[in-house]
Amino acid sequence: MAAFRRWKEQRLARADESRKGSVDEAIAGLVQLLNGQERFCTTSSCAGRLLLAQAPARGFNGYEVQKKNCSWLMVTHQLCAKEDVMTVLQKATGDTVFKFEPFILHVQCQELQDAQLLHSVAIDSGFRNSGITVGRRGKIMMAVRSTHCLEVPLSHMGKLMVTEEYVDFLVQIANRKMEENMKRIDRFYNCLQLALKTELSMSNSPREMIQKTHSVYTHRRKRKPDKEPGVCTSSENKEESETEDDPEANLNIFS
């Protein structure tokens, strides 16, 4: 416990090495909430972004964006307009790919049970590609991830390969994904707050009661109608909404 605390202090004292150099505003409160707990330490994060990437002269490797080998012609953590994308595409000289990357968060956890708590919250919040990894030296990492990505090549050697109408269509899809992404972040934040409060109240309960309830997030409840966006709901509801929104919803989860 003391070793984790020292490591966390050193980690949080480091300069932010991301391109932006700071935590995205949309998730600043969430990151602060996690780092305010002794057992959690965030190591990397992104609130989600829309970007237009351009490959070097040799082009993309199978049109997969390699961050180290490409330049970002446009990046935003907000909704964007077709005109923004078209303006940038007119200046492109190489192969470009339009991409939506959803929220991602990596958290190092002090104990495995801490990571399991975050995993339950993430799954219930719609981040069904989340998982836990344990290193050889016992390093416990929890990754919060989603599956509703988007990646489409638009131009080759500076020549636009699709119509402007299709670019408009893609932007609309990407914006809807960004809106859903922000809703899931809100749900995650609210569910995490509830989980921490529930765990605190259970800490003074008899051990038998704790074992029976285990976690409010692993107990499946009946669906309640007209849930507000950002309100924590049961696992069944999240699986249903994820399946409707995401064709990749059947991806296996590491638990």
From TrEMBL:
SUPFAM superfamilies: SSo0622-like. The keyword Lipoprotein does not apply. It catalyses: 4-demethyl-7-[(3S)-3-amino-3-carboxypropyl]wyosine(37) in tRNA(Phe) + S-adenosyl-L-methionine = 7-[(3S)-3-amino-3-carboxypropyl]wyosine(37) in tRNA(Phe) + S-adenosyl-L-homocysteine + H(+). Pathway: tRNA modification; wybutosine-tRNA(Phe) biosynthesis. Residues 205-255 are annotated as: Disordered. Residues 10-193 form the tRNA wybutosine-synthesizing protein domain. Residues 239-248 have a biased composition (Acidic residues). Residues 205-216 have a biased composition (Polar residues). Probable S-adenosyl-L-methionine-dependent methyltransferase that acts as a component of the wybutosine biosynthesis pathway. Wybutosine is a hyper modified guanosine with a tricyclic base found at the 3'-position adjacent to the anticodon of eukaryotic phenylalanine tRNA. This is tRNA wybutosine-synthesizing protein 3 homolog.
